Amino acid sequence: MNWRLMSARMGWVAAVAALAGFYAAEVKAQAIAAGVEVDAGGVLKMKVVRDASGQLSKQRIADAKAKLDPKLAAVSKIRKLSLNRLEAALDKALQQGGIPDEMKYLAGLTRIEYVFFYPETNDIVIAGPAEGYMLDPVGRVVGVTSGQSILELQDLVVALRAFPPSGQKTPHIGVSIDPTQEGLKRLQETLVRMGGRLQPGNFPQMLAAMREALGLQNVTIRGVSPKSHFAQVLVEADYRMKLIGIGLEPPPVKMTVFVDKARPASVSRNALLRWYFVPNYDAVRMSEDEMAMQLVGDGVKLVGADEVVRADGTRVETGGGKDIANELWTKSFTEKYGEISRKAPVYAQLRNLIDMSIAAAFIQDRDWYTKAHWKMPLLMDEAKIAVETYNVPKQVETAINAISKGNQVMTPIGGGVSIDPLKALENSNRGGDEGGKIKATRSEVKLNKLGAGQWWWD
User: How far is CA 146 from CA 73, 114, 133, 140, 290, in A?
Assistant: First the structure.
């Protein structure tokens, strides 16, 4: 059984382009924010908020600027945050009634660029660019000035718990979104059954039938609590990347998209194309004295893998040659990741989760917990710092688009996010400190002038 369908020699490509193009034009014209929501049953769905005039965004920015402390709202090239002092400040805040936004959003950090250790004061410090923050219309925390995603305490806690003072390691963190074997079998049967009746006029009906046959796809989360915001970001980034790849969400920047370059002749029949986000593992630089680490670059790659779907719905890796469309798409997404993340904050969130995980693994690997005499008692306690508060993503609605070029219909689905933080710390992946710049940056950080209870500074 294969996926080649007998179709009329008519304008199928135009039909696909018109469908995807209408959706893209509508979103570009009206949407100011997009995200996902997970219902009580665990089904993840897209959430889009529209604002044709842009007035909502302007009002949110004005409100944020009016409410934020001017020092916190200031754009900083490198803001420093002591993790030990943050925990002490959190303990005091909880005793006084609750955690303020300043702590929830880590003083407006938009990235972790450096991790430093100061044995003379036992401070473990993270540092990076920062600015004032606000909630966008879908509830995502973004920078007032840049619109970039802001680091969140709840995600940092998840990363630290994955590499705690106890020495327990989490070798793999990830998510996989996969169709069921039964769904793939039904899809194969549906494609064959519809083969003699495909016409440009029934294109929407064909997609609906394929989507119904495939059914909901299963979500598998590894290495972190599936009840966490951390896990939800992994799922959203993966899901929305696929929507872009198959033409169901407009790309946030000008880039090569799989659906535009796909050619049936270059794809194995019965092909199930799978796309994965992975860290850029050579993004770690370390000072010679191992008291400082820098994360460089955008930190994320998109890679592809091909599988064949058998008649019974089982999947087998092809091991065949490269598909040009797949290669161009994954290369383009990787090369433009920084630009994409500035336009679509979920991808900045994904990058930040990867950075947090590598930073946490580094702190544990260098034994800084022991050297700092820091057992992280509060951050490790779910009863006091609750991060497992979200509905568990169990299934997602099938995102499927038919790409008819020649006389073949292709349905690219599948993939995930795969993070192995310890791999980034391997000697083969670590870079050195050219010209001692990382060490010099660490030495510029002064802790002796910090006030009582102060945990961040510029």
Answer: 12, 20, 9, 14, 32
DSSP track, 83-148: HHHHHHHHHHHHHTT---HHHHTGGGB----EEEEETTTTEEEEEEEE--EEE-TTS-EEETTT-P
* Cα–Cα distance measured from residue 86 to residue 364, given in angstroms and rounded to the nearest whole number: 18
Higher pLDDT, 5 or 114: 114
More confident residue, 24 or 176: 176
8-state DSSP, 177: E
Q: Using CA atoms, how far apart are residues 103 and 83, in angstroms rounded to an integer?
A: 11
pLDDT in tens, 106-139: 999 999 999 999 999 999 999 999 999 999 888 8
Specify the DSSP element, H or E, that contains 34.
strand 31-38
Residue 161 phi, psi dihedral angles, 5° rounding: -70, -25
- In the predicted structure, residue 451 carries a pLDDT above the cut 80: yes
Residue of 110, 34, 38 whose CA lies nearest to 79:
110
- Residue spans of alpha helices (H) in 6-82: 12-30, 55-67, 70-73
CB 374 within 8 A of CB 441: no
Can you tell me the distance from the alpha carbon of 93 to that of 99, in angstroms, rounded to the nearest whole number? Answer: 6
Beta bridge partners of 128: 79
Question: In the structure encoding, which two tokens stand for residue 126, read together?
Answer: 């993270």
H helix intervals, 246-294: 258-261
Mean pLDDT of the chain: 83
What is the value of pTM for the model shown? 0.87
Q: Please tell me the distance from the alpha carbon of residue 295 to that of residue 19, in angstroms, as a whole number.
A: 41
Cα 155 to Cα 244: distance, rounded to the nearest angstrom: 25
Q: What kind and span of H or E run contains 47?
A: strand 43-50
Closest CA to 405 of 310, 267, 270, 305: 267
First-residue to last-residue Cα distance in the chain: 63
Distance CA(369)–CA(376), nearest Å, equals: 8
Q: In terms of C-beta density within 10 A (0-12 exposed, 13-18 middle, 19 or more buried), how is residue 52 classed?
A: exposed
Report the alpha-carbon distance of residue 427 to residue 291 in Å, rounded.
Answer: 16
Contact (CB, 8 A) for 430 and 284: yes
Distance CA 394, CA 175 (A): 11
Q: What gap in Å lies between CA 318 and CA 10, rounded to an integer?
A: 31
DSSP-based three-state secondary structure for 301 = strand
Domain assignments of the chain as residue spans, ordered by start: 12-457
